[in-house]
PX domain-containing protein (Fonticula alba), 128 residues
Amino acid sequence: MSNEYYLIKIPIYETHIDQSGTTFISYKVEATYKGTINSVFRRFSEFVTLHNEVRKAYKGNHLASNIPVFPPKHPKFMIDHMDDHFVDERKFNLERYMQLLSRLPKIEQVPMYVDFLEGRPLQPSDKK
């Protein structure tokens, strides 16, 4: 069994406007594994999708208790999600979450985890 894991950083975020005119934030996820660096921008909702998939993958496994706590969601009507302080704090919390997740035993066996880090589309499993 290997002790190697992805080294995760989220160094920056960017503000975008989608086709409907909605503004959103994406976070640059840099994953280094065995000297190779992959960089991909992901929205908060994609981190939520990943977390839910990891929980499904570990359901019933004794390792489920090792899944890190996901950063809190905040209703948009209560907090401005475009506020620099809010986005910086969320970026920090997402980076810490991903660093802890990368150390979860057998995490590399969760297909969506690798897809997330390598920039592939996220396809949730049908598993409940």
